[in-house]
Write a structure and sequence with these properties.
MoaB/Mog-like_dom_sf, nucleotidyltransferase, Rossmann-like_a/b/a_fold, alpha/beta, Molybdenum Cofactor Biosythetic Enzyme, Chain A, 4 domains, FMN adenylyltransferase activity, 36% helix, elongated, Rossmann fold, 6-stranded mixed β-sheet
């Protein structure tokens, strides 16, 4: 009961509320599954599991007291612990887990197979109907979960109980420090989110500047000021469909794929569709995407409507490596972008407490708790992108990036910060930029059409197009590709098909406005 006493005596009203809600969920589960052997706790040695362990201890004793049972003779915690021992786990995690088992008399089922197979075998031999999990909103596994959620299709049947689902990073450390409980030593070495030894590093935001060139040192995890950067220490890897352009061993096929990465640009706004405002952001954004070597496969403007946004995002995210979307972000009824993205990924919009704190700091008392629609984000798939130059955060949902700019100046700043974040965090590959050449001619469309058609077949790696700035003006032919020599060869090949002087090279500027 030292846990309960520590929380009751603290001055942190938010922590007390979170604790009381979690205790209620646990007691409710213990009432629903009245036999102790029907419940279990999946413990992994991390900070969230550590918090839940102590909440379960406190809630179990409180539950027994309410039932009128004597707890004086209870020395061991009777709820069984499920621990999946992995060869890729940090040794410190294993050591900490076994220390907890000794210190608190935990009865452990140690599983050394994969999670699903181990769980199937365990549930065949034990009457477990519910498992307590230390899952929090924002975790990859939290998508679609509630405090009580049945297991997913294809898994053995059991109830997932998530007492700390709505806890933030700040809440977790407030509990640990207030209750003065032991935690894994890795958190004192700068680790803020611990996975396997293959994908986890200390959080660079906690690095202590070191001018001597000796081994880097890190501040402890509880000193991370912004909980939204909790997973910044997880090593990021590109999916197979988006190869890393920095790889020196890339095959010709890889290089070809890199040069063909495509993105879609989606604008959200009835005002653009009605012609009330010019779509300057879309034009500028397309040029910026081309400047990092990506091709635009599609651009569209959709209504301020959740279904319209969802339909377009779902279509484009599956057919492109990246989607950039702008407009329709905010608290107004017409701001449907985030709701549409959530629907496209099959998740709900859920309150993000840390984002709400950020908004309250940004806009003061106008941020009104649950009524603030801006504090709701697509659940479990959202990564907030921070940069010291940005007053408004950027939002990334898997391969969809939401830009919140409302004018060209804001877009320029957001894009520059996004590229800087990409260079340090590998958000998406930065490719060889396109090079371009432009020719102009007074020849007619009919005269040059056959030769241009053949040229496109001869140079399939180039984007060859032509247009007029006026109906009576000259034709401008553009050649765009990653290789400047190929552009030159194509212009020479076209020129050789006609009389000398039929084409003139011109330099075209690409203004951002």
């Amino acid at each position: 009961m030292e846990i309960d006493k520590a929380i009751r005596n603290c001055n942190d009203r938010r922590l007390k509320t979170k604790y009381n809600n979690a205790i209620y969920v646990v007691k409710r589960a213990l009432a629903l599954y009245s036999r102790t052997e029907e419940v279990a706790f999946s413990f992994n040695g991390g900070k969230d599991s550590t918090v839940l362990l102590h909440i379960l201890r406190a809630a179990f004793f409180l539950h027994k007291e309410e039932e009128g049972c004597s707890v004086d003779g209870l020395e061991k915690f009777p709820i069984r612990i499920i621990y999946f021992e992995s060869p890729s786990a940090f040794p410190e995690i294993n050591s900490f887990t076994y220390d907890m088992a000794t210190n608190y008399g935990l009865v452990m089922d140690i599983i050394q197979t994969d999670f699903k197979s181990g769980l199937e075998a365990l549930l065949k031999n034990r009457p477990i109907r519910a498992i307590f999990l230390g899952v929090r909103i924002g975790d990859p596994t939290a998508v679609g979960q509630e405090q009580f959620s049945p297991s997913s299709p294809g898994w053995p049947p059991f109830m997932r109980v998530n007492p700390i689902l709505d806890w933030s990073y700040r809440d977790v450390w407030a509990f640990i420090l207030t209750c003065k409980v032991q935690y894994c030593s890795l958190y004192d070495q700068g680790y803020t989110s611990i996975g396997s030894i293959h994908d986890t590093l200390p959080n660079a935001l906690l690095c202590i500047s070191n001018s001597s060139g000796s081994k880097e040192k890190f501040r402890p995890a509880y000193l991370l000021s912004d909980g939204r950067s909790e997973r910044a220490g997880r090593a990021k890897r590109f999916s197979p469909s988006v190869p890393n352009p920095k790889s020196n061993g890339a095959s010709n096929m890889d290089l070809q794929k890199q040069s063909m990465l495509t993105a879609s640009v989606i604008g959200v706004g009835d005002e653009i569709l009605f012609g009330t405002v010019k779509d300057q952001l879309g034009l500028s954004l397309r040029r910026k995407v081309h400047s990092i070597g990506w091709s635009i496969s599609h651009t569209s403007i959709v209504r301020n409507d959740i279904d319209s946004v969802a339909e377009e995002v779902e279509l484009r995210r599956s057919s492109n490596e990246m989607v950039f979307i702008y407009g329709g972000v905010g608290p107004l009824f017409s701001d449907a972008t985030l709701g549409g993205i959530a629907k496209a990924f099959g998740v709900r919009l859920a309150p993000d407490e840390e984002f709400e704190e950020y908004l309250r700091h940004l806009i003061g008392e106008h941020c009104t708790g649950d009524r603030n629609e801006m504090a709701q984000l697509p659940e479990g798939i959202t990564e907030l992108l921070h940069h010291e130059k940005l007053s408004v955060l950027l939002i990334k949902c898997h391969n969809v990036i939401v830009l919140t700019a409302t004018n060209i100046m804001e877009l320029d700043l957001q894009w520059d910060c996004l590229i800087e974040l990409t260079r340090t965090g590998d958000l998406f590959p930065l490719l060889e930029p396109y090079k371009s050449k432009h020719l102009t001619t007074k020849l007619s469309d009919v005269e040059i059409a056959p030769s241009l058609a053949k040229l496109c077949l001869e140079f399939p790696d180039l984007h060859i197009g032509c247009y007029r700035e006026s109906r009576s003006g000259p034709i401008i032919i553009s050649f765009r590709g990653k290789n400047e020599e190929r552009n030159q060869l194509a212009t020479e090949a076209l020129s050789k098909k006609f009389q000398p002087g039929a084409f003139s090279e011109i330099n075209l500027q690409s203004p951002e406005t």
